[in-house]
Design brief:
This protein is an alpha/beta fold. It has helices spanning 10-18, 29-43, 60-72, 82-86, 90-100, 126-132, 185-199, 208-228, 237-247, 260-268, 289-303, 316-322, 326-331, 352-361, 364-367, 379-385, 396-408; strands spanning 2-4, 24-26, 76-80, 104-106, 135-139, 160-165, 179-182, 253-257, 277-279, 310-315, 337-342, 345-346, 348-349, 389-393, 414-419, 432-437, 442-446. The chain is globular. It binds thiamine diphosphate and magnesium ion. Residues 63-192 form the Thiamine pyrophosphate enzyme central domain.
């Protein structure tokens, strides 16, 4: 059970403890709510007194129609959403993807339902896959802003959507589906799989579509690699994530929030197992990360002695929203590893010298660009203040060594404050730059 420390829940918490329920007291109700929601997602336990709903399958006629639309597709794409993770569809889905030979793309929290390094994963060619697909099998994902509403200019205007969802109200949101398959995702994927087995159908790997996707994946990988291998100090996002990804255990649970930090981290940090990624998700709410990490660490600690590693990758702004929860981590000895990717701001910041120059020019409340945070703030000292490990990191060597020490420590949490280039950016994105202070050459990104 998650709540806050003290008034007004003292009696409830004590009663819960007396009944053998573990009570995690957090610093803010908001973080406690995030934590409770994450436990439901990670464990699949229904935390209510309602009976478990029956599993519903799709209409067989609709399955036949879906298979015929898929067979006619020239450029098919499977999109795996977090509904597939929540519905525990991974085993059937893996067999379906491998039998049918279809390319797939995970949504942020659909990552890991099938491993990111699966040969059919086309995440590294995401934009092209979305834009050019003529048939999309949408599995437990919603056509909201994260999938650009399923509309042009990011989708083909004539795309046919085969929509699989548990929720009838979701059918036809933003795009009218060619086929609607209503029901339990695991059951429906199993139905589709049975039909693929019967027909012995497979989408050929020798198609223009597969070659186009593979070419794009290779080109994008080359660009990311070039950025990742840069050894300049301060580091850029890609260098940080490249080295982090080399050291993380494949079964770790990755929690993430931020803007660039979350977006770039999503492309660079692989997930290999379902329900091993928790991020700001559909609502993009900053502040969820530490609550999610505490939930995951608590679940892991209760189910076996050590459990799996929880790694929490935070933008410096994102960290600030619930940063005081490091005290909760220290209080319960939850060995979470927090990596704050610190660019002194939101999307970008300014360096300490520029900040000092600005301060000399007048009142910072009228001068400082509204995307900036205090340069080189010592978030690592927030962790050491409560007895956890804190590291200030500027170089690749410092990063690797601090991360290794943190991963070897199962007794207490760590925080790596990774100072990166405040103007480090995403590769090849289309931005509109608005110059807010010519004199300081500070760009505010809007997109
Ligand atoms: C509760 C809430 N408030 C504000 C926002 C707007 N917002 C989007 S991303 C972000 C922070 C991004 O900065 P940071 O975490 O430092 O990541 P960076 O892009 O700098 O790597 C904010 C405040 C939000 N998403 N949620
Ligand atoms: Mg930042």
């Amino acid at each position: 059970m998650f709540g806050i420390v003290g008034v007004p829940i003292i009696e409830v918490a004590m009663a819960a403890q007396a009944a053998g329920i573990r009570y995690v007291g957090m610093r803010n109700e908001q973080a406690a709510c995030y934590a409770a929601s994450a436990v439901g997602y990670l464990t699949g336990r229904v935390l209510s007194c309602c009976p478990t709903p029956p599993v519903s399958v799709a209409d067989q006629g609709a399955i036949t129609e879906a298979i015929s639309v898929l067979k006619e597709a020239k450029r098919p794409l499977v999109i795996i959403g977090k509904g597939a993770a929540y519905g525990r569809a991974e085993t059937a889905l893996r067999e379906f993807v491998e039998m049918s030979g279809l390319p797939f793309l995970p949504t942020p929290m659909g990552k890991g339902v099938l491993p990111d390094d699966h040969p059919n994963c086309v995440a590294a060619a995401r934009s092209r896959a979305l834009l050019q697909a003529d048939v999309v099998l949408l599995l437990g994902a919603r056509l909201n802003w994260m999938l650009h509403f399923g509309l042009p200019p990011r989708f083909n205007p004539d795309v046919k959507i085969i929509q699989v969802d548990l929720c009838a109200e979701e059918m036809g949101n933003n795009v009218r589906p060619a086929v609607a398959l209503l029901g339990d995702i695991n059951a429906i994927v199993t139905q589709l799989l049975e039909r693929v087995h019967e027909d012995g159908w497979k989408y050929s790997s020798d198609t223009e579509w597969w070659s186009a996707l593979k070419d794009k994946i290779a080109a994008n990988a080359k660009i990311s690699k070039a950025l990742a291998l840069q050894s300049t100090v301060p580091m850029n996002y890609y260098t940080v994530f490249h080295h982090v990804s080399q050291l993380l255990p494949p079964d770790c649970i990755i929690v993430s929030e931020g803007a660039n930090t979350m977006d770039i981290g999503r492309t660079m940090l692989n997930n290999y197992l379902p329900r091993h990624r928790l991020d700001a998700g559909t609502f993009g709410t900053m502040g969820v990360g530490l609550g999610f990490a505490i939930a995951a660490a608590t679940v892991e600690k209760s189910e076996n002695s050590k459990g799996q590693r929880i790694v929490c990758v935070e933008g410096d702004s994102a960290f600030g929203f619930s940063g005081m929860e490091v005290e909760t981590m220290c209080r319960y000895n939850l060995p979470v590893v927090i990596i704050v990717v610190n660019n002194n701001g939101i999307y970008s910041g300014v360096d300490p010298e520029t900040w000092k120059e600005m301060a000399k020019m007048g009142d910072l409340t009228s001068i400082a660009p509204p995307v900036t945070l205090l340069p080189e703030a010592r978030y690592d000292e927030v962790m050491t203040a409560f007895g956890g490990r804190g590291f200030l990191v500027r170089t690749v060597e410092e990063l690797r060594s601090a991360l290794q020490i943190s991963l070897d420590d199962w007794e207490r949490p760590s925080l790596l404050n990774v100072l990166i280039d405040p103007s480090s950016d995403r590769k090849q994105q289309v931005y509109i730059y608005v110059l807010v202070r010519k004199v300081h050459n500070v760009a505010l990104q809007l997109y």
